[in-house]
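Hi there,

I know you've been waiting on this one. I reran it after we fixed the sequence typo, so this is the corrected version. Both the input and the resulting structure follow.
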Amino acid sequence: MELVCLRNPQERNGARAFTLPELVISIAILGVVTGGIIYGFANSTRVAEWNAYSLAAQSLAFQGVELARAAKWDPMAWPQVDEWGITNFTEVEILDVPIKKTPVYATNFISVSWVTTNPPLRRLQAACVWRMPGRGLFTNFVTTLRAPDQ
């Protein structure tokens, strides 16, 4: 069996090769796509780290409100029981984030204040202030209301 080539052999070799502009454009497209992937990965890592810190701070703020809520307050008892009263206090703790870097400290500002005296109702609020390394200060708030003996 004999194969017959209908085209000129010189044209066939030139038609199958890439030109220099095609090669440069394909390398540029590859560079842009690779850069986008690297930027997306770095950005998602940064956002995930911020979310970890924010959730740890929110948990710390909830702990402060629950600490104030757990105090006994019963104005109907004799003598009246009020373990906290109207107060403001702060706690400084380390955010519970499993990292190998230096620990991140957060300050939890907890306040107990009156909303109404008849019926007795108090507002418990915690503001957890924390610093994201390289990004500045952030604050997480938790507010709840409490009636006596609850």
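Quick highlight: Strands lie at 73-74, 81-82, 87-94, 105-117, 120-132, 136-146.

Best,
R. S.
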